[in-house]
Amino acid sequence: MKIVSAIAMTLLIWILAPTGEAAVPQTNSPVSRGEHPRLFFTVTELPALRDRIATHYRAEFQAFIDLLNDTSVLSSGQKTIENHWGSLNYAFMAALDPQQMQQRGFIFSAPLDTAPEYCDKALAYAKTFLAPITAATDQGHGDLATGYPQSIYFPVMAAYDWCYSYISAADKTALVDAFVAAYIKKYKGQNLLNMEVAGLDMLANNQASADIHDILGIVAFYNDPYPGAAIQSELYDAFHAIWINRVLVELNYFYKTATGWHEGSGGYINEGFANLGIPIGMFSSALGTDYIASTPHFYNYPLFAEANLKPYSLLSQCGASGTVSCPEYLERWGTISGGISGIGCKTAVLTAGMLRKSNHSNASLAKWLYQQTGGSCSTAVTQYGGTWSNAVLFWFIYGDREITAQSPTDLKIAKTQKLGLGEYVMKSGYNGSDSQIVFWAKEHNMYGHDSPDYGSFSLHKFGNLILKPANSKSGDAALSSSRFNLFENVIGLHKGASDPTHNFNGNMTDPFFGARGITRINTAGRLLAETINNVNFDYIAYDNSASWDPTTADISQREFVYLKGSLNKEYVVVFDRMNVKNPSTDEKIWKIWVTAQPEFVNGTSTNPRTGKWTSTNTDTMSVTNQFSSLKTPNFESAPTHGRFFVKTLSPDSFRINALGGPGKEFQGGDDDGLTPWGAPAMTQGMHEYLGWGRIEVVPTVAKNYDAFLHVIQFGDSNTLSSMTSTQRIDSTDGKMMGADIRDTVGNRVVLFSAALNGSPVTGSVVYAFKPAATTSKHLLVNMAPSTAYHITQNSGASDTLITVATAPQSGSVTVTSNSQGVLGFTVSGLTIVADMTPPSPPKNLKLQ
Prior knowledge:
Layout: H1 6-16, H2 46-56, H3 58-69, H4 76-80, H5 82-96, H6 98-103, H7 115-127, H8 130-134, H9 154-162, H10 169-186, H11 218-221, H12 229-254, H13 268-287, H14 296-299, H15 301-308, H16 345-357, H17 363-373, H18 386-397, H19 408-411, E1 416-418, E2 423-427, E3 436-440, E4 444-445, E5 457-460, E6 464-466, E7 491-495, H20 511-515, E8 522-523, E9 526-531, E10 537-543, E11 553-563, E12 570-580, E13 586-594, E14 599-600, E15 606-609, E16 612-615, E17 620-625, E18 630-632, E19 635-637, E20 642-650, E21 654-660, H21 684-690, E22 693-699, E23 705-716, E24 726-730, E25 736-741, E26 747-753, E27 765-769, E28 775-780, E29 788-795, E30 800-805, E31 813-816, E32 823-828, E33 831-834
Parallel strand pairs: 26-28
Antiparallel strand pairs: 1-2, 2-3, 3-5, 4-8, 5-6, 7-13, 9-10, 10-11, 11-12, 12-23, 13-22, 14-17, 15-16, 16-21, 17-20, 18-19, 20-23, 21-22, 24-25, 25-26, 27-30, 28-32, 29-30, 29-31, 32-33
């Protein structure tokens, strides 16, 4: 099958879609040739499929033959879904051809030992769904992802396709007419570019995706004698509009680099993956294009799941004995707490098999993922619905026994990954003691149970430290609502006299979907620059100004740097620029959500009311997450032992608030102590993944523009007892500002443009820092891209002066900034060395 670039495919669809020309399959594809079988596999693939089953699934296939001979052995639960999978199971056996399988040593017995006999059985099951198909019956959004899965449409399509040579003309007509009737009832006369399905004008979600299987039927009978060419063309146009021009466009628009999901990392993504992945895998073979292998959302799922797994959840320190494997949890986003409970076994198993079938190199990681981190995934095929509902897809068509599982370490997977929806996951490694930092550079305001994490971030080390808080759907401590700026680790604006949510108020419709008449999707922000997987740092710059009404704020930018190091010597530097139009009424509030009560490290604090502590002379806070017995009805963690310090270096005048504690975890944004969305009773186990409360940094002088500069140091609470001396530095010319982290193994100096809009620095820069060791690492961002700079140092009694010039100087060393305007170098004694070369390229899961 043909594999095309997902981006190229999407652009092609955008170019061709407005022409109004009828959609036609590509020349020489199985559908264009009128060939059967075509769904899931083609006639040319059958010999290899038969051999593969005989080699890798011999015992399972013989047992499956026996099961089809005697369905009385189905359990009561399996009996409830018997009709849903009967047509698929019997038609599959017919497609393989019992005579061919007998030649490979399998034993069949009368009255089921010929293809026509199996097709008779398949057709009997298929006919039970003619009425539901004719009525375009809705499928439940979780029907394919449950233990006892149900499907109305594609098993019937498979019976038609795989048994095509053995079905009478009258029966073919009856099956086709049902799908034609469904089209007429639901799609005919609709604007297919924006019609709503399941109440949604976006289709690549768990709900709508379950309810568009009824338009797939044409793929089974396109170019057959019946129905006529005109109705076939009409149905194919509808299929193409819904599945190619909408579903695949959405997947490649929002998740252009890798897997993502707007409503969180678990739960709904598993439903959506089944609802979308199985049909797309089915019609890929028919259309002659491998959409699984060319769509990042599918082929990069192993990377998505592995990156989002919380390192600390990989330990075996849970249970009453403290020696049981801990439940695996994923990074949280969206407004659902239940979405973090580990990978979906069926999703992982299906992905491994699909990628194996596509001959995609990522299959080995997918297999490792569900074998090593998937808990009970080994029984995913045999439990509940068992082989009756799972064997054909999860073993025989897909399956992965012939590939070797390989870990991220084996594959040298990059430790920092850019995923769908602008999610960046930065890890120090793939073990339980490693760090995980997540940063969001979202381009779009999504829908449903998503969250407005436009520039938000989280931090995990020996447990959660800075986290996405709160949930408002299912699970522990549910609130009445939680989709607010307030519940993100970003700058919020308290607008006017009362504004408990601090919400973003921008309303800029995404231009692509707006042109289709869909206004649900708004522009949230844009990526300004990135440099990831450098051996010393990761850097992302993001502008979320579009999330604000321009009459409220016209500059809102965040630059985020992860400085890599050994234990207790890792740092995050966060630099924010914010310009508001009405500073007298709209108050800027920088905030992070934490798992335990913060400590005011210096200065003095007061406790003016329950749940609030405040100080105007503190610049450093710490949070220690060191707890045991962290188990709730929906969550469990090993005993934690993480700590972080955060120091505020800008603005010049500010107060720090700590808001939280029992019954006060989720205070509103009006600084009145109220909890508008509820005050559920919470244990420390709930605080561990939903939050204790938040730290706020609030300027005490109202100005239009403020720059916020924070340095966060994190590590092991057993050994990290104080923060490394950290000071703000400003270049002598006022062009740059940043931090001098005076680590005893060598300073880490980070500088940003001091311009209000972050515009690139022009000309030379001179700054001083105070060396703590003979070696120091310097990172200057917002420089002119791809420009040669000439660096000199001049050591004084206590400070060292660094000159970064645009022209050669006496004794200068030339270092060139990268295309993102990032300049990195190390000063060691009298030597200056460029730090811009990344490590040997790790194997990043690839875009084909």
